[in-house]
Write a structure and sequence with these properties.
This protein is α+β, with helices and mostly antiparallel strands. It has a single domain, classed as Beta-Lactamase. About 45% of the residues lie in helices and about 20% in strands. It contains three helices and seven strands. Strands 1, 2, 3, 4, 5, 6 and 7 form a seven-stranded antiparallel sheet that branches. Helix 1 packs antiparallel against helix 2. It is rod-shaped, with a radius of gyration of 28 Å. It starts with a helix and ends with a strand. The relative contact order is 0.13.
Length: about 190
Amino acid sequence: MRIYVVGFTALLFILAFYVFFRFSYGFIRDEAMHRAEALLDNTILRIDRVLDAVETAAGNSAWEVEAHLDEPDSLYAVISRFVERNPIICGSAVAFRKDFYEGGREYFSPYVYDTEEGMEQRDLGNDTYNYQEKEWFAEPLRTGKPHWSEPYFDMGGGDMIMTTYSLPLYDEQNTCTPSSRRIFRWRG
């Protein structure tokens, strides 16, 4: 009789444990899915805020770049102020179509970027970095519309993984002439 009682009790214990396990497993799985969805939604909202901030900053500074198109060497100062005032943006450039400036500058793209040592600047318009073939330049020039590039490693430019928001700029004849490049690395 003891064997039957112990066996029946063990069977009830195993059955109760199985039911408890299945209930707990389903509850924990559902709770984990709910938390993951909430975290994903929160992350998407944070990324959207960052993208919107970059677009707004670029749009708000476009007039200043357009005002200095006749003074190419002053663009470094304009771009430097832009990067300094926008901590989410790690660099900015203005890239011009081939031969936009007469007198020796076939390609010209002043670029300012933030490093651990401070602000650095360079001209991306050189023989080793053909920016005219890059998506961030070609697409907005082709469409005349702002463009977000897919993330990429910018070898020879920023030398980091980045994404680029390109905003076409227009000269006095309302021709889509240069492409303004606003790059950012999300610090957060």
